[in-house]
Amino acid sequence: MQSETRKVWAGGIAAGLAAGFSASKSQATVIYTPLTVENGTVDAANPQVDIDFENDGSPPISIDYDSTNGLTWQKQTELTFPEYIADPVNSSYVAALPFGESIDSTGNFQTTSPAFLNDTTSDSDFVASDPPSVQYIGVEFGTPMSADDYGWIGFEVTDDSSLADLSGIVTGYAYDDSGAPITAGAVPEPTSLALLAMGAAGLMAYRGRRRIVSR
Fold first, then answer.
1. Number of domains composing the chain
2. pLDDT at 2
3. Which domain does 11 fall in, by range?
4. Does residue 55 share a domain with residue 153?
5. Any bridge partners for residue 114, and if so which?
6. pLDDT at 27
7. Longest Cα pair distance anywhere in the chain, in angstroms?
8. Do 22 and 87 sit in the same domain of this protein?
């Protein structure tokens, strides 16, 4: 019985270490920033939410509300970048991407600013629904002298009954800092440290159970 217990412990430790090493070799490069309803709401009372992908205090994009243009994507820099994936029919409107859509160099990227998300017209791709659903903005950003990074912004229109009542929520945003394509809604994978912690928790639970049984 003691020999069998040792084998189980050894197997559990090996599995935990293997999972940790595997994760460290393929660590995600996705940088994700979630927002709450309080700091992500865009409406007449809170007309701007900054999108600071790199969390460096210099947000390249904001999602804005005004009584003339409605809900819009705005550049916060005069450089060529950032760009958004545009509606294929009208490039001054931002395309609403579904969860899992690939964001890469094949996207119909445009730089028009402001670009419309919802101005209560039939051209708006971002619309209110019941129940509310998150749609995604595909983004490419960087500088003309550096490699491009691809990212997404999650956005949910909560009211488009009238221009005065337009409101939405930025649910979060993410980008891949390796320059690789990203899928809309992608978030970082668990790190090796988290996986090892999970393995350790499992081993501790097993140890506690073994003590109870032995009594």
1. 2
2. 43
3. 2-26+191-214
4. yes
5. none
6. 53
7. 76
8. no
The pLDDT, as a whole number, for residue 191 is 57
Q: What is the rounded distance in angstroms from the CA atom of residue 54 to the CA atom of residue 143?
A: 13
Residues 84 and 175 in one domain: yes
Same domain, 74 and 155: yes
For residue range 132-169, list pLDDT tens digits in order. 899 999 999 876 556 689 999 999 999 999 999 999 99
> Within this chain, do residues 74 and 163 fall inside the same structural domain, yes or no?
yes
Which residues does the chain have with pLDDT short of 70?
Answer: 1-28, 143-147, 191-215
76 and 151 share one domain: yes
- Single-letter amino acid, residue 119: D
